[in-house]
Amino acid sequence: MHFHNTLIYWYLQNQRELPWRKTQNPYYVWLSEIMLQQTRVAQGLPYFLKFKEAFPTVFDLANAEESMVLKLWQGLGYYSRARNLHFTAKYIANDLNGEFPSSYKELLKLKGVGDYTASAIASICFNEPAAVVDGNVYRVLSRYFGIKTPINSSTGIKEFKILAQTLIDLTQPGTYNQAIMDFGALHCKPQNPLCNKCPFSSSCVAFEKGLVNDLPIKEMKLKVKKRFFNYLVINTWDEKTVLSQRTGKGIWQGLYQFPLIETDKAINEQKLIASEKFQSLFLKEATISLFNQVDVVHKLSHQHLYTKFWIVKTPEVEIKTIPWNEVDKHPVPVLIDKFLDAFLNKKK
């Protein structure tokens, strides 16, 4: 029996019931695939449902304010996906009259759409035999064929794509692609895969040679950078605070934050008050207290943020303020969102 026949047979018995699988509408499939980049299905599902309700068509998403898109995306992470999603929605609505490209090559030209997403949409919506390769697929193929080429190397990326393309079921490519993704997510899992009841156990190289826990192989990761954030949570006497939008190309572009003083190491209250930025913000009396006695450590892919939230009470500040009851209208990083939950509950 061919690899794809065994896989699809397993899938028809074990597939997950997911809302984007009930349609071949490329808008919904595209939306789900962008959300599931580097995100588990359980985490992405409620966001998909929120976006589907708020923006039922690509035109609705295109016409939305970016701040609303980012607010609905809040907590999902990798915010460049949301900005690319919004940009591409406007392009499809305004330049393509709402019609999605119908081929892998044309889909690949869309901002925020890479090989995996283009393959998924092309196969599921337009029946094009373009094989998907994501973390689940790398794991299944590296174990089954015993491939030791690092999956995050240029050689590995090319090798696995070519192999995946040779295995796809040409008659039902969309079903095959969803089958191998589900098989990797539910059966051939990163930890504790279900090898003893696997339909491929008799022909799986990793199972035969005891390499299941060793595959797939990744090259050494980049060194993680440590950053030290000091947020100034301003609380004026008339119940106002300061939020500003992050600009530039760094993390959290377009999201809002409290005034930030970043340092090269952890600092105490005295050094914070002596800093130039603090002095420029508070020309009048200000009392300061540390909300979290232990740094909040927020881990991103290549950097760890060691964060202190300093509560600053002052009559007024020299920059634009907003009422505290308007804070929740602004999209903020999950780091600040969690702080706000704790801080506002304590204020009640």
From TrEMBL:
<protein>
    <recommendedName>
        <fullName>Adenine DNA glycosylase</fullName>
        <ecNumber>3.2.2.31</ecNumber>
    </recommendedName>
</protein>
<keyword id="KW-0411">Iron-sulfur</keyword>
<feature type="domain" description="HhH-GPD">
    <location>
        <begin position="35"/>
        <end position="186"/>
    </location>
</feature>
<keyword id="KW-0378">Hydrolase</keyword>
<dbReference type="GO" id="GO:0006298">
    <property type="term" value="P:mismatch repair"/>
</dbReference>
<dbReference type="GO" id="GO:0034039">
    <property type="term" value="F:8-oxo-7,8-dihydroguanine DNA N-glycosylase activity"/>
</dbReference>
<dbReference type="InterPro" id="IPR000445">
    <property type="entry name" value="HhH_motif"/>
</dbReference>
<dbReference type="GO" id="GO:0032357">
    <property type="term" value="F:oxidized purine DNA binding"/>
</dbReference>
<dbReference type="GO" id="GO:0035485">
    <property type="term" value="F:adenine/guanine mispair binding"/>
</dbReference>
<keyword id="KW-0234">DNA repair</keyword>
<dbReference type="Pfam" id="PF00730">
    <property type="entry name" value="HhH-GPD"/>
</dbReference>
<keyword id="KW-0227">DNA damage</keyword>
<keyword id="KW-0408">Iron</keyword>
<keyword id="KW-0479">Metal-binding</keyword>
<keyword id="KW-0326">Glycosidase</keyword>
<dbReference type="InterPro" id="IPR044298">
    <property type="entry name" value="MIG/MutY"/>
</dbReference>
<dbReference type="InterPro" id="IPR023170">
    <property type="entry name" value="HhH_base_excis_C"/>
</dbReference>
<dbReference type="InterPro" id="IPR003651">
    <property type="entry name" value="Endonuclease3_FeS-loop_motif"/>
</dbReference>
<dbReference type="InterPro" id="IPR011257">
    <property type="entry name" value="DNA_glycosylase"/>
</dbReference>
<dbReference type="GO" id="GO:0046872">
    <property type="term" value="F:metal ion binding"/>
</dbReference>
<dbReference type="InterPro" id="IPR029119">
    <property type="entry name" value="MutY_C"/>
</dbReference>
<keyword id="KW-0004">4Fe-4S</keyword>
<dbReference type="Pfam" id="PF14815">
    <property type="entry name" value="NUDIX_4"/>
</dbReference>
<dbReference type="InterPro" id="IPR005760">
    <property type="entry name" value="A/G_AdeGlyc_MutY"/>
</dbReference>
<dbReference type="InterPro" id="IPR015797">
    <property type="entry name" value="NUDIX_hydrolase-like_dom_sf"/>
</dbReference>
<comment type="function">
    <text>Adenine glycosylase active on G-A mispairs. MutY also corrects error-prone DNA synthesis past GO lesions which are due to the oxidatively damaged form of guanine: 7,8-dihydro-8-oxoguanine (8-oxo-dGTP).</text>
</comment>
<dbReference type="Pfam" id="PF00633">
    <property type="entry name" value="HHH"/>
</dbReference>
<dbReference type="GO" id="GO:0051539">
    <property type="term" value="F:4 iron, 4 sulfur cluster binding"/>
</dbReference>
<comment type="similarity">
    <text>Belongs to the Nth/MutY family.</text>
</comment>
<dbReference type="GO" id="GO:0006284">
    <property type="term" value="P:base-excision repair"/>
</dbReference>
<dbReference type="InterPro" id="IPR003265">
    <property type="entry name" value="HhH-GPD_domain"/>
</dbReference>
<dbReference type="GO" id="GO:0000701">
    <property type="term" value="F:purine-specific mismatch base pair DNA N-glycosylase activity"/>
</dbReference>
<dbReference type="InterPro" id="IPR004035">
    <property type="entry name" value="Endouclease-III_FeS-bd_BS"/>
</dbReference>
